[in-house]
Specification:
heterodimer; A: 301 residues; alpha+beta; six-stranded mixed β-sheet; five-stranded mixed beta barrel; 17 strands; globular; B: 375 residues; alpha/beta; seven-stranded mixed β-sheet; 58% helix
């Protein structure tokens, strides 16, 4: 059942007790009593499925405000996975970003069945573009633009690769956008569905975008794209040396130490079967067109 | 209020909450559990650093094949991947230590987790490591530390009190950290502190060390000493963050050694007396049997009872709580207090009162202030 089939009151009641939501290949039990967090989840995850109570849950998470004196004095929110607090509490006003970061922590630190890259990843017809992220390169922004142009979101943050077959598994969460990129996306796409805006977080101003197409499926990586925003540059796509790409991907993987040689070979296999391109751009719509042309052209390769 | 707390503390812990202990003492039970119960077992195992161990257990006993088709095998596979990486890394790191000690004609004696892995013992599979423990002769301690320092293993603690505490009273020097790899080494010269009255003479341990097959110059404690050390560590050191895992170590070691050597049990009892470790031996036998159903011959159990403390009723209440899985489902709010009482007890066992009181005050003071600066 889709989450938006529940009316908001029922949803509120359920999530206070703990509600199972399917996020790609994970079933997450979310429990919270903070109303702002509840309404933001209701909005941002409305296309996700709720799962019955008797399903096997991957992560039991909660986000709550302590019932101590801190309820009145500089109120805080804390994130827990099964009673354990992996990250520091934040001011109550930043409870929702804490929830999203906490969920990322769970996957990046527990889902070692996958080789995990810090990358945005989208797909069309089971063929995926992997966009490894150097901070500030604008991978989330570009990912948001492509999702608005018909690509399905697999993840804007973590690419989960099965080392045995090299396929990437979905975990579509709302796309997190920061600072200038919020304005960029909202001016380009009037239908962009933004959640609440948070100011003065550790990453500046932050908001989340509901992916209109959050149904990314298990896919094969066909293109590895290194996007770089450069305000002086025209749209340029340049093929990249695969050896250099290998080093970058290896540095980009959170848990390459877990897989060792197996991980190294998995990266080799990904690169063998994909086209590796660097993209420099200043005009985002132009860049989207260029990427669409690139992927159309090599579709039958 | 205080009385209520005391009563609650003395109440029997509901072991039924710990599905995990039932499963590790009889793994085939797992296939008969509902999916939600199986999920709870995996959660309790994850919190207790036992998920990979559980995965290996399932694989070894072919339990994985008898689960429902929807069972998420990836949960324990993920933990096994991490444990395998730990094991590979620790073996590589031990290789570097082997070179260092060989070049100086000193034996490399491994303790605890590193020993289990390198000796290929069943509890080495799926184990996670935070450090490597070594045993060196006290007379060669300074020399060994210098040797390690040249290989970039350095003592990073700058606190004068900590230095004094470790070097004057403890059975180990402050942890050494590798400058580049950040791995941690604990260098011991005994298995209990200088200040502990039950402390066995270290030379008795050195006399019985056994070489590791295919690892030149690498040694581990003899089977009886390894089990006694593991018991001493668990019941005297006062750290229960890995209480259940350490108890499961004991269970697996005991089963392994007693299957290989029919005389293992009588040897263990005799060695316990020789090393003055009858009390930890008693606890080890009592709680592996009580919590994990470890098979213990009746006559051995009777013999070990000679060292039963008078307050065993109280100890049961405390250890039952401290040895439960590290998970909210097994935590009735008093586990923390039980662990704290056991922590104080361990210090009392290891130090005379005249040293203990100032030491605990000092620690409490320091913890309080470091918390304040963090907040």
């Amino acid at each position: 059942m889709n989450l938006n089939n529940l009316d908001e009151d029922t949803f509120k009641k359920k999530i206070k007790q703990g509600l199972n939501i399917q996020i790609g290949c994970f079933c997450v039990n979310i429990k919270t009593s903070i109303s702002e967090v509840i309404s933001n989840i209701y909005f941002l995850y409305s296309n996700h499925h709720c799962i019955t109570e008797d399903a096997f849950v991957d992560f039991h998470v909660s986000i709550n405000a302590p019932k101590s004196i801190r309820r009145w004095f500089r109120p805080q929110a804390y994130f827990e996975i099964d009673g354990y607090q992996p990250i520091e509490p934040l001011p109550l006003a930043h409870a929702y970003p804490l929830f999203e970061w906490g969920l990322n922590w769970c996957i990046a630190n527990r889902a070692h069945q996958y080789l995990i890259f810090h990358a945005a990843i989208i797909e069309k017809e089971g063929k995926a573009i992997l966009m490894p992220g150097v901070p500030g390169a604008g991978k989330s922004t570009f990912c948001a633009a492509l999702v608005h142009d018909g690509w399905s979101l697999i993840s804007d943050e973590l690419a989960l690769v099965d080392v045995l077959d090299g396929k990437v598994h979905p975990m579509p969460k709302p796309i997190s956008l920061k600072n200038e990129s919020i304005e960029v996306i909202s001016s380009l796409y009037s239908d962009a569905a933004f959640g609440n805006i948070y100011h003065n977080t550790s990453k500046g101003t932050l908001t989340h975008l509901r992916a209109s197409n959050a149904s990314g499926r298990i896919s094969t990586i066909k293109w590895v794209l290194f996007p770089r925003y450069d305000k002086k540059s025209s749209t340029r796509l340049i093929d990249e040396n695969k050896g250099r790409a290998h080093i970058e991907l290896l540095n980009n993987a959170f848990n390459s130490n877990v897989f060792g040689l197996q991980g190294f070979d998995a990266i080799n296999k990904i690169l063998e079967h994909s086209r590796v391109v660097r993209l420099a751009y200043s005009d985002i719509l132009n860049a989207v067109k260029a990427v669409n042309r690139l992927t159309e052209r090599s579709k039958n390769v | 209020m205080r009385l209520k707390l005391l009563i609650a503390l003395l109440k029997e812990v509901r072991m039924s909450n710990s599905l995990l202990t039932k499963v590790i003492s009889n793994p085939h039970v797992f296939t008969h559990l509902s999916i939600k119960e199986q999920e709870l077992v995996m959660r309790q195992a994850e919190g207790s650093d036992l998920l990979a161990t559980l995965g290996w257990l399932f694989k070894r006993l072919d339990i994985t094949e008898n689960l429902k088709p929807t069972f998420p095998h990836s949960k324990y596979e993920a933990a096994i991947n991490v444990a395998r990486a730990h094991s590979n890394f620790i073996q590589w790191e031990i290789g570097t230590l082997q070179e260092i000690f060989k070049n100086d004609n000193k034996p490399l004696i491994l303790l605890k987790g590193a020993a289990y892995t390198i000796a290929g013992l069943p509890n080495g599979l799926g184990r996670l490591y935070s450090d490597i423990d070594l045993l060196v002769h006290k007379a060669e301690l300074n020399e060994s530390e210098l040797l390690l320092k040249r290989a970039l293993w350095v003592d990073k603690s700058t606190d004068e009190y900590d230095q004094m505490y470790y070097r004057k009273w403890m059975h180990e020097i402050p942890p050494l950290t590798h400058v580049k790899r950040k791995s941690v080494l604990d260098v011991h010269h005994a298995i209990l502190p200088e200040t502990c009255k039950h402390r066995p003479e270290p030379h008795k341990l050195f006399d019985e060390v056994v070489p590791v097959a295919n690892m030149e110059n690498v040694f581990v404690l003899s089977p009886t000493d390894m089990v006694l050390h593991s018991m001493t560590h668990l019941f005297y050191e006062g750290e229960f963050n890995h209480g259940l895992r350490d108890l499961f170590d004991l269970d697996m070691l005991i089963k392994h050694f007693s299957a290989k050597d029919a005389k293992f049990w009588p040897k263990l009892i005799a060695r316990g007396q020789e090393l003055n470790l009858q009390r930890p031996l008693y606890y080890g036998i009592r709680y592996t049997k009580r919590i994990l159903n470890t098979p213990v011959p009746d006559e051995i159990e009777t013999l070990s009872m000679n060292s039963q403390p008078r307050l065993i009723f109280l100890m049961d209440r405390l250890f039952d709580k401290a040895l439960m899985p590290n998970h909210p489902s097994c935590n009735n709010g008093l586990s923390g207090i039980a662990k704290w009482l056991l922590y104080v007890r361990s210090h009392y066992l290891r130090m005379p009162i005249r040293l203990l009181i100032p030491h605990l005050f000092r620690k409490a003071w320091k913890t309080h202030f470091s918390n304040q600066t963090a907040a």
